[in-house]
Specification:
With 149 residues, the protein is α/β, with parallel strands linked by helices. 44% of the residues lie in helices and 16% in strands. It has one domain: 3-Layer(aba) Sandwich (Ribose 5-phosphate Isomerase B, Chain: A), CATH 3.40.1400.10. The longest helix is centred in the first third of the chain and has 13 residues.
Length: 149
């Protein structure tokens, strides 16, 4: 599975740790920016990059990191077919995958420590969607209205 990982400056160090963690697990992890620490850069750019790459690579996943995880979550969810979930526990990551087929995990560099982030990533990547009829129906409705890329 391809995993595209991006962050703004507030998540930059955390993103580097995540990439190292994923490489230890032999996951195909790709850094999609920011590539250098630049104070004050925008969360929008890495979120757009991750969302675009996940859309273009069926079966792939994305991980985004910013200060609170709110900005990257909102930006990624502007893309049709992207279901970005801000998860703050392993349980929330499992539910995001099982119930909502989330394909982008959004994490907070400010409110989480390294161990919790690794636990959440493991839960997210190791949980499959359970395609009950009601869940599939609800997911289809996510892309029914609005302006999407």
């Amino acid at each position: 599975m391809k995993i595209f990982v991006g962050s703004d400056y507030r998540g930059f160090e955390c993103k580097k740790e995540i990439l190292g963690f994923l490489k230890q697990k032999d996951d195909a992890a790709f850094d999609v920016g920011a590539y250098e620490y630049k104070e004050g850069d925008d969360f929008n750019d890495p979120a757009i990059s991750v969302a675009t790459l996940v859309k273009e690579n069926p079966g792939s996943m994305g991980i985004l990191v910013c200060d609170s995880a709110h900005g990257v979550t909102m930006q990624a969810n502007r893309f049709k077919g992207i279901r970005a979930a801000h998860c703050d526990s392993a349980e929330s990551a499992v539910l995001a995958r099982e119930h909502d087929d989330a394909n982008v995990l959004c994490l907070s560099a400010h409110f989480m420590n390294k161990e919790l982030i690794q636990e959440i990533i493991n839960a997210f990547l190791n949980t499959s969607f359970e395609p009950l009829e009601r869940r599939v129906r609800r997911i289809k409705r996510l892309d029914e209205r609005g302006n999407y890329d």
